[in-house]
Design brief:
This protein has 604 residues and is α+β, with helices and mostly antiparallel strands. The chain contains 13 helices and 29 strands. The chain is 22% helix and 26% strand. Bound molecules: ligand H79. Ligand H79 binds next to loops.
Length: 604
């Protein structure tokens, strides 16, 4: 579409062939075909790279207090002329697209998402629409996106483009920069606050027509096939604005996927929860979970808060077991080099996938929920289940809960494939037991492949208590009841339930036990509370048994503490209910609850 055509929105109706917008819902008949590749890949690599990478979180020799280095212009209150002056010095001679793409491959990622323009408005490619770019403003004689597109093509990696469409702190009519443009929409302003303000809306739309839409057009025209467009901060634009982008992408590259943050689920090929969200309730079957290796997306000198390989790999399993793709981020230095820690972390994920990739790539989410020992994935067309065992059974007998279907064989995969089949037997109608005593353990997760007998898979969704190990009941997976009580945003330190303002609000879990003799358990509760909440009471119950518990000061909201609250007994085989219910508050809210662990005790 030519630029002046979408200036006035003409022709949009006619252009929309595969999409109908009715009842405010996008109905897209072509999505299954378009998204097929993405459903297979399960791991992507995000790259955040721009002038902010050069600054690394430091301005004029001082550390800027912003977790995200790429927000330094806003958070450091840097005038746009000064930021632009710094950006002009970007000369990334160490940038080597082949090395980046090779790292993506070594990490096991199958797609790479590159920031073509972040909120700072600086184009990391040779834009003809705006001179504020790596080539024309910084006079770097190469086009990084072009080089990446070529390297990705050569290596069989799909290229995705991150484009900050809603915010641009350089363009005088966009959003987020009220330091230089006081009449603009502020970084924290909600859509409703300005959409009726004609001046703000018209100027913002001028930015969309002058810069954002034409740049998206360039990116989808000049760089070959783009696997996906990754937009951000879609809550800051209107439905009408979203349609402009949506139609432009569909017109130029009908097969290009669009992430949720163009606007919301209605325009999305797939969903995105919050950045760095550890626990989630996916609302779309196709969804993607994005994570930093440390705290910042863009390179930051003093960010040493690295996740461990174990945390990253567990997140990969958790996301795959819930039918999502994981995207890990790397923030190269301003000169284009990638630091050793990031490289090593990504390579460790890659070596896990090299050993165990068949249990991740091309799989669907678990049909049997999340067993206490780890995660499960599924290849329905091949009748294969993969058990990704993180907590190895002490006695060497793994209980597979919740599966009625027949099993043909069980075997370890990866390097251990030569070992042959493992003995297994049925334990009652829903469970199996696999003898894994001979299987050597992987440092992160040991994978057992199960070939099913080809019938329709029959599963039991009620989690099974496994008496050989601690059983954890995550508040995020519980059913919540009562005014105010809600799941927190799922990020680190916020992966519990919060808003416990009504005294008798409750979190409940249902599980089944198959043990005929009683299981005596110690009960550990993980909660957080500030000093003024200490002294509140709640009741922890298992069926008819009750423990009255007192809230203790853990040092505040994000400081989790573990407390042993007493003992409870699972008396018999059958369905049981575990519940935490408030009794009395001494402050505005009772506590945040993260999990309850039942720790079976050795029998006397
Ligand atoms: O690119 C990474 C982040 O920079 C970007 N998303 C990931 C993929 C991101 N942008 N915003 N946010 C994440 C959420 C943060 C929002 C706020 Fe702000 C920070 C609100 C106020 C300060 C940035 C500046 C967004 C609005 C103004």
């Amino acid at each position: 579409m030519k630029r002046d055509e979408y200036m006035d929105g003409a022709g949009l109706e006619q252009e929309r062939s595969d999409v109908l917008i009715s009842d405010n819902r996008v109905i897209d008949h072509d999505r299954n075909r378009r998204i097929a590749w993405w459903r297979e890949v399960r791991l992507g690599l995000f790259v955040h790279w721009g002038p902010y990478s050069m600054l690394g979180g430091v301005w004029n020799g001082e550390r800027v207090d912003a977790n995200y280095a790429e927000h330094i212009q806003l958070r450091g209150k840097i005038p746009v002329t000064e930021y632009a002056e710094a950006a002009a010095g970007m000369n990334p001679e160490a940038f080597d697209a082949h090395e980046w793409v090779s790292l993506a491959k070594r990490s096991g990622a199958k797609y790479l998402i590159m920031t073509a323009k972040h909120h700072d408005g600086f184009a990391m490619y040779d834009s003809k629409v705006s001179d504020y770019s790596i080539t024309r403003h910084a006079h770097f004689p190469r086009d990084p996106i072009k080089e990446l597109a070529e390297a990705c093509e050569a290596e069989g990696i799909r290229l995705g483009i991150y484009y900050s469409h809603a915010m641009d702190w350089h363009h005088p009519d966009s959003q987020g920069n009220t330091l230089d443009y006081p009449g603009n929409i502020g970084a924290w302003d909600q859509l409703e606050e300005w959409i009726e303000d004609d001046d703000k809306r018209e100027r913002f739309e001028r930015y969309l027509h002058e810069k954002a839409l034409p740049q998206v057009e360039e990116l989808l025209t000049d760089y070959g096939p783009i696997g996906l467009m990754w937009f951000d901060c879609g809550h800051k634009i209107s439905d009408e604005h979203a349609v402009w982008f949506y139609d432009l992408v569909r017109k130029l590259q009908p097969d290009c996927l669009i992430n949720k943050r163009l606007r919301d689920d209605r325009f999305a090929d797939y969903g995105n929860p919050h950045d760095n969200q550890l626990r989630f309730h996916p609302v779309q079957p196709d969804w993607e979970s994005i994570h930093t290796l440390n705290d910042s997306w863009g390179f930051r000198y003093d960010d040493d808060n690295w996740k461990s390989p174990d945390e990253l790999i567990e997140q990969l399993l958790r996301v795959a077991a819930t039918n999502g793709n994981l995207v890990l981020n790397v923030g190269p230095l301003g000169n284009g080099a990638i630091d050793d820690t990031s490289r090593r972390l990504l390579e460790t994920v890659g070596s896990f996938l090299e050993r165990n990739g068949e249990a991740i790539y091309g799989t669907r989410g678990s049909p049997i929920g999340t067993p206490q020992w780890g995660y499960c994935t599924w290849k329905p067309e091949e009748d294969l289940l993969y058990l990704l065992v993180r907590e190895w059974p002490q006695d060497g007998f793994l209980i597979l809960p919740g599966l009625a279907s027949g099993v043909q064989y069980a075997r370890p995969i990866g390097a251990k494939a030569k070992m042959g089949h493992l003995p297994f037997r049925k334990l009652g109608p829903w469970d199996w037991q696999i003898d894994v005593r001979s299987v050597p353990q992987d440092a992160y997760a040991t994978v057992i492949e199960l070939k099913l007998n080809g019938e329709q898979l029959e599963s039991n969704g009620t989690p099974r208590f496994i008496s050989q190990m601690p059983n954890t009941f995550w508040a995020y997976d519980g059913v919540i009841e009562g005014d105010g009580l809600r799941y927190d945003n799922g990020k680190r330190g916020h992966d519990g339930v919060t808003g416990w303002t009504a005294p008798n609000a409750a979190v409940q879990w249902t599980f089944r036990s198959q043990e005929k003799t009683p299981i005596y358990c110690r009960v550990i509760v993980t909660l957080s509370a500030a000093a003024d909440q200490a002294g509140g009471h709640f009741e922890l119950s298992l069926d008819e048994q009750k423990l009255t518990c007192t809230v203790k000061d853990t040092g505040g909201d994000e400081c989790w503490g573990e407390f042993e609250m007493g003992q409870l007994t699972i008396l018999s085989a059958g369905i049981h209910r575990l519940e935490v219910r408030g009794l009395s508050l001494v402050s505005d809210s009772l506590m945040n609850l993260r999990k309850v662990t039942l720790l079976p005790m050795e029998r006397e």
